[in-house]
Design a protein that fits this description.
Distance between the termini: 76 Å
Number of helices: 7
Order of helices and strands: HHHHHEEHHEE
Structural class: alpha+beta
Helix content: 55-70%
Strand content: 5-15%
Radius of gyration: 23 Å
Number of strands: 4
Number of domains: 2
Strand order of the largest sheet: 2-1-3-4
C-alpha cells in the first residue's frame, strides 16, 4: 500500500509527472480544507492584516507541497502549524488587553468625530473625502460628507459611518 501511495504522489522521486502533481493538488486541496476547518471560520472571511498574512504564507507553503519543492508531509504539517498559530493568537487577542489585541489584529481609526474631519488621520491612512462619500452611499444613504457624525476606518479596511440625525448640524 505504501508503494502505491508513493507512486501516486511521487513521494520518493526527484521529478514529478503531471498526474502526480495533479494528485498532490487534490490531496492538498482537501488537506487545506480540513486544516482551515480546524482553525476558525474568520481566517479568510475578513481581511485584516492578521488574516491576509496567514493567507499569503498558507498559499505559498501549500504550493510547495503541490509542486514538490518541499517534502510533502512536512509541508502539510507547516501549514497546519500556521493555522493553529493563527487560532492561538486570535484567542490570545480575545483574552488579553486592548493593546495586545490591537497589535495582533489592528485597531480602528477615527476619520470623522462629531462631524469634524480628522484630516491628519485621513492623510495617514490615504482616505479622501470621496472615500467617505462612498462609505455613506454603501451604507444605503445619500448625501455628502457633511451628513457624517462619526466615521471609522475599521481593521478590515472598510469605512463605517454613523450619520447625523435629522435636524442635527
Amino acid at each position: 500500500m505504501e508503494e502505491y501511495f508513493d507512486l501516486i504522489f511521487g513521494l520518493d522521486e526527484d521529478t514529478l509527472t503531471w498526474w502526480q502533481m495533479s494528485a498532490r493538488a487534490v490531496w492538498v486541496f482537501f488537506a487545506a480544507l480540513l486544516i482551515i476547518r480546524l482553525g476558525n471560520h474568520r481566517i479568510f472571511g475578513k481581511s485584516s492584516a492578521f488574516d491576509i498574512v496567514l493567507g499569503i504564507i498558507f498559499g505559498s507553503i501549500l504550493s510547495r507541497a503541490i509542486t514538490g519543492n518541499s517534502p510533502f508531509w512536512p509541508t502539510l504539517a507547516a501549514a497546519f502549524v500556521l493555522v493553529m498559530l493563527h487560532k492561538l493568537l486570535a484567542s490570545f487577542a480575545f483574552h488579553t488587553s486592548y493593546d495586545v489585541s490591537d497589535f495582533i489584529k489592528g485597531a480602528s481609526k477615527t476619520l470623522v468625530k462629531d462631524g469634524e474631519l480628522q484630516k491628519e488621520t485621513m492623510e495617514e491612512n490615504s482616505i479622501t473625502k470621496n472615500d467617505l462619500k462612498e462609505a455613506v452611499r454603501s451604507s444605503g444613504s445619500h448625501g455628502g460628507v457633511e451628513r457624517i457624525k462619526h466615521a471609522y476606518l475599521e481593521r478590515s479596511g472598510n469605512i463605517s459611518v454613523i450619520l447625523k440625525n435629522e435636524g442635527e448640524e
